[in-house]
Amino acid sequence: MLVLVINCGSSSLKYQLIQMDNEELIAKGLVERIGIEGSVLSHTTIGKEKKVIESPMKDHEDAIKLVMEALVDPEYGAVKSLDEIDAIGHRVVHGGETYKSSVLIDDKVIKDLEACISLAPLHNPPNIAGIKACRELMPNAPEVAAFDTAFHQTMKPEAYLYAIPYRFYEKYAIRRYGFHGLSHMFMANEAAKLLNVDVDDLKLITCHLGNGASVTAIKHGRSFDTSMGYTPLEGLVMGTRCGDIDPTIIDAIGEKEGITDEEVNTLLNKESGVLGISGVSSDFRDLEKAMKEGNKRAELALKVFARKVRFYIGAYIAEMNGADAIVFTGGIGENDKYMRSLICSNMGNLGIKLDPAKNEKTDDAVILSTDDSKIKVLKLATNEELVIARDTKSLVEKMEARK
Ligand code: ADP
Predict the structure, then answer these.
(1) More reliable by pLDDT, 9 or 216
(2) Model pTM score
(3) Which of 188, 217, 250, 338 could be bridged to 224 by S-S, CB 3.0 to 4.6 A?
């Protein structure tokens, strides 16, 4: 089964064409600057040269049209006709409390997603636009929605409720939702394979550390608690997001700087995190370079980031009464050995012992802890697209079996 995976951001679109019979990547690409001057598509069919196409794209429908043209192009494309694509899987950020797993898309699902827009005003509209464009352009291909929030729907009320009047949960669905669910689920399953233990028998702490970052406690393969909340702003310190702060700070900044709530919100999302503390960059490579050159604020930003990851690891060990493994992924988790060692340093009493030599390894999936470390430390290359494609294949096969 050939599955096209689509991930629409506000001005971008990532896609992968995967042959699910052997989970082989056939083609991939990225559209940037949708609706902005200078729209560009970079397409690669595996085994062929990368093609960059600059063309105005006013919306996601234009972008998807161009992606489809690229996929069937006789020179650099991947298929002869779009009919060869059996199904489309969409990444959708917010499924609210309605969706606890991936789902085949029909008119009702689209209505439900539209009802979730107030929960994810920046993310759900482009996701819906991508779904609608595919329905228009490939009406015969079944579509599946895979949600960033769904995996965390197994959290208990004591983990997802905020201590504000209960009526706000009832009236407005204000609660912790959690994000990066596709990645955390992937990490749990891959970690189980690497440890050669059934995921149902494991307590895991999965750390997705990229520009956005979150930690999840996973007990018996289910999300038990997670650091992101009502929105992806809560929890860890991130590249440009503040993570947990005292909510009074929001008013204080607004009042002292004479700026609106919306401006404070932008400041906390885009100008804070390690960028805000360091004043250097949101990129950890830049921060580590600056630190080596003696920049104290870059060093401080890295320490603040590491402290918060350690803080959640400790909290989740307490919540689950132990852990079998800590798993790292994301651009930082996978590649930044300095940050991994900072996070795992001085936790021997908790049973976490990183092996400095193993921490140097560049393999995609590997154990980094010493043999006598009670809690194992792992790193993996996450693959959210593959999770979406697997769910798409499974739901479409079930649908066809019912016919
Ligand atoms: P996104 O959340 O946008 O998908 P990624 O998971 O790609 O982000 O992570 C991006 C971050 O990973 C970069 O900002 C950078 O800080 C970090 N990163 C990537 N490669 C390295 C590396 N070799 N060393 C340190 N940090 C790295």
Answers:
(1) 216
(2) 0.94
(3) 217
